[in-house]
Amino acid sequence: MEIKPCVNIRQEWDIVGARQLGREKAKELGFGTVDQARIATAISELARNIYLYAGTGKVYFETIDRLDKKGLKVVAVDEGPGIRDLSQVMQDGYSTSGGLGAGLPGVKRLMDTFEINTEWGEGTEIIAVKWVR
Amino acid sequence: MRIPILKLHNYLLISIQIDLDDQSAIQFQEDLLNKIHKSGATGVVIDLTSVDIIDSFIAKVLGDVVTMSDLMGARVVLTGIQPAVAMTLIELGIHMQDVQTALDLEQGLIKLRQELEG
Ligand SMILES: Nc1ncnc2c1ncn2[C@@H]1O[C@H](COP(=O)(O)OP(=O)(O)OP(=O)(O)O)[C@@H](O)[C@H]1O
Ligand SMILES: [Mg+2]
User: Fold this and answer.
1) pTM of the full structure
2) What strands lie across the sheet with B100-102, from one edge to the other?
3) Is there a smaller number of Cβ atoms within 10 Å at the N or the C end of chain B?
4) Is A6-131 a domain of CATH 3.90.950.10?
5) A124 interfaces chain B, CB cutoff of 8 Å
6) Which CATH code, of 3.30.1330.10, 3.40.50.720, 3.30.750.24, 3.30.1370.10, is assigned to B6-117?
7) What is the ipTM of this complex?
């Protein structure tokens, strides 16, 4: 089995580390520059959310290489407070930290698939995939 | 990491050449405002040609820099935003409506001169 590239998010600078590694993976897979920027931006948003709201967590990457399609799967997991009201956080402009509130709805638009599993008090897992076109 | 701020007549010129982490972005905001205060600059060009990612945090810092500089009497123009970055920003839902932009540093300076010197 392939070892998954993984970035631990513990300090602010790890956000940059995560998006740089993600961009590298995206490049290797053959994504164009615009998709590379989309993926790197999405990772940056997810990693920052971990840093801001959960304190620590990790972001890891899985390359999907099937006969019919190739893609990059980004998984962001933490054992932070979780999200109480999912529909609320998916609204543009909703933020509990004075941010633009663009992060999560933005990631959903930047990537092709987007899934959140979260439990209040347990943590959050976000899985997003981008397909190579 | 500190971002160098150059002075040219009444203008300040900045070319961002690093992958901006949050701390460097905030530091830059502070440094620029101090420099505007000290130099009495009336115009600022921030060149983003080498920046290949702007996420919501950096966008917020840049937007704030523009508003704050404006309050201090200095007009800011952002230049050289890469196509991929522009597309990503819009998809993120960030429109930066009140921000002046130009194609490159030279055009940015021309724009400032037209606006400030009539
Ligand atoms: N991993 C997480 N754990 C707990 N809460 C989270 C997590 N990620 C996001 N949230 C909650 O969802 C809200 C919306 O997140 P989103 O990223 O969309 O906006 P933001 O981080 O507040 O602002 P921006 O990302 O634009 O700077 C956050 O304010 C926070 O309350
Ligand atoms: Mg966020």
Assistant:
1) 0.94
2) B6-8, B11-15, B43-47, B75-79, B100-102
3) C
4) no
5) no
6) 3.30.750.24
7) 0.91
